[in-house]
Amino acid sequence: MDIEEDRVESVEHTVKCAECGSRNLERDFTRGELVCNECGLVLEDTEIDMGAEWRVFSPEHGDSLARTGAPSTYLLHDRGLSTSIDWQNRDYSGKRLSSTNRSQYHRMRKWQQRARVKNSFDRNLTQALPEIARIGENLGFAKGLTEETALVYRKALEKGLTRGRSIDALVAASIYLTCNRNKLGRTLDEVCGAAKVGRKELTKCYKILKHALGIRMDVNHPVDFVPSFISKLGLSSEVLSKTLDILESAEERELTHGKSPTGIAAAAIYIAANVIGSNRTQREIADASDVTEVTIRNRYKELASSLNIKMNK
DNA sequence: AAGACGAAAGTGGTTGA
DNA sequence: TCAACAACTTTCGTCTT
Fold this sequence. Notes:
Elements: E1 8-10, E2 25-28, E3 33-36, E4 42-44, H1 59-65, H2 99-116, H3 120-138, H4 143-158, H5 167-181, H6 188-195, H7 199-212, H8 222-233, H9 237-252, H10 261-276, H11 282-289, H12 293-306
Antiparallel strand pairs: 1-2, 2-3, 3-4
The chain binds a DNA duplex (17 and 17 nucleotides) through residues 258-260, 263, 281-283, 291-295, 297-298, 313.
């Protein structure tokens, strides 16, 4: 192989183009852009290229360029780039060190520790980043998402947003922001639960964070929540696509305006499951979607009658 | 008995003066 | 800042299967 392929990757279909609504998007690592294939709109221009920075012309060439050590990560306060000194007083062959060397290493370790965590910024990160990793794991985040959250948090910290606020709340807000940015369809309560932060505190921090980082967020749409609810309910992909159909017609007729997206999503799933024949009770769907049975009832009646959908008994 | 239904009262967020 | 408002929740009694 003598010519490197373009560093381009198609994107999961949960993201929609803001201009034409198409889900046919591509991530271009070379230019650091998220681009719509239909209308060419650049949706994001700050993508982080997680790949190697070199070009490879043959397998041997690649090997010769490879470096040792773990990759740089936003999840460690020093990005994993610092040296650490082993606590065991032994040399490379396992022999014990002489007492002079031992005290020398002791001093080196002490200063290494002091140098690594040198200011309040780093101290804050050493507390916040493990928390991000923990909550991310709790919510089933992929590695990349945890990294993204860590990056958001770093930016928040740089802007001095932690002053007078709890680290936990800001961590939770970063997580919630990442969820929304990636259309993961996680409810506020799910994040509150995983982060053990109050609803009020989280929303407050979330607003501040969004404003400070200048991130514009389009409102959540019911479709964003569907995959997560469907999987919690153990429903088939047939029900999934039926639900998406229902939601599409509902959006067209503007039945979703001003209503909570989770309620609409839950109702659409209720109808779809019923039509397909894999019924779920209102209670089950209410539990999975964090809305009440009453809301599901109200929404599904509206949807079914407006869209002329006949339900099975 | 389980699930669905609907009324009534209460809650938290948004909007506009 | 406050009142008005729509959406949503909670609770509970009733109906249907």
